[in-house]
Amino acid sequence: MVHQITVIGSGFGALSCVRELRRRDAQAEITLIAPREELHYLPGIIWIPSGLRSREQLIVPLANFFTRMRVKHMAGEVTGVREGGRRVDSTVGEVRNDALVIASGGRFIRKLPGIEHAITPCEGIAAAEKIRDRLKAMTGGTIAIGFAGNPNEPSAVRGGPMFEFLFCIDEQLRREGRRDKFDLVFFNPAKEPGNRLGPKAVGHLLDEMARRGIRTHLGHKLQRFELDKVVTEGGELAADLILFMPGMTGNLWFDRTDLARSPGGLLQADAQCRVEGSQHVYVVGDSGSFPGPDWMPKQAHMADLQAAAAAENLLDGLNGRTPVATFKVELICIIDAIDHGTVVFRNERRQMILPSSRLFHWVKRGFEGAYLRKYR
Question: What's the CA gap between 338 and 356, in Å, rounded?
């Protein structure tokens, strides 16, 4: 029997799932729904302000990949899911399936008053280009960089890139001979920002900020942004440029489904990546809320691990076998600063941080090249 499988999204989790599905089932008919036939490699946007990366280097056309994987791409946006996941509604028509994988990413919570005065880097390549252009036009001033979480779901946060933007901008200004004209300040409502990386990593990051002369404003709830300031319960921060990553929640179209939701608005998954209470519906990456430790990261590596488990379980379920595959939980990141980086690793048994080295910067670049070659 030929299975009809629908995948929603074109990011890391979606594409990893496609590769794993095709590896395990050469006959399945796979339909992927996403607005663009492109992969945007967002981990590389930290290098756009310094000119180390450009838009063209971070966008990978997927036509060749879809041809190799024999995937039908529908260039549209999903508007809802019906019949327990068996019917997907989109701007380019409906798609029926035997099984569904939702890997459409998350949505940033933009409820804080005045958030339009801040740039949210991970909204995409255009946001990083805006940071680049603003920095180029500035002759001095204060740059405020921070992030926050989803109050109803502590794990729905992506703070790592903000540390990278902070250190990369500091290094860029030093290279340009302009650092003395700028005041950098890092803000966060938590007293120990980035604690999901582990206590050692938090200490290292705060020490690195102090070493670089970066001020901190920690432990105060955010109230609002204004054109030239960040306002918290603990006082105001004057700012000529504000970079801010809010917490994450589910896509708006999730509201037009009967799929189980987490307290923070994501799709509630079980240990096998199934959406709870549904049949043959799986979720991967930032779209889902998964059982596990409270430090479980929202990063491409986790999406890849979840994608492998979801693909195996999906096909087992369709073939009458009990889905039992799970995914390991681990955090691996290199916090980069243009020409050197710090490795942070964490799993359920241990935590590790390796001191800053130029080698790790090149490892990060090498990983980028190897990862993208799979899709070019």
Answer: 12
Count CB-CB contacts under 10 A for residue 255: 10
Who's near 374: CB < 8 A, 6+ residues apart?
A: 19, 65
pLDDT at 9 over 90: yes
| Residue 90, pLDDT above cutoff 90 | yes
What length is written for the chain? 376
The overall pTM is greater than 0.90: yes
Question: What is the separation, in whole angstroms, between the first and last Cα of the chain?
Answer: 31
Q: State pLDDT tens for residues 201-235.
A: 889 999 999 999 999 999 999 999 999 999 999 99
Confidence of residue 165 (pLDDT cuts 50, 70, 90): very high
**Using an 8 Å Cβ cutoff, are 188 and 148 in contact?**
yes
Residue 195 has pLDDT above 90, yes or no: no
Q: Mean of the per-residue pLDDT values for the chain?
A: 95
> What is the Cα–Cα distance from 179 to 167, expressed in whole angstroms?
12
Strand partners, 188: 218
pLDDT of residue 266: 97
Closest C-alpha to 298, from 11, 8, 6, 10: 11
Per-residue confidence (pLDDT) for residue 122, from 0 to 100: 87
Please state, in angstroms and rounded to a whole number, the distance separating the CA atoms of residues 128 and 132. 6
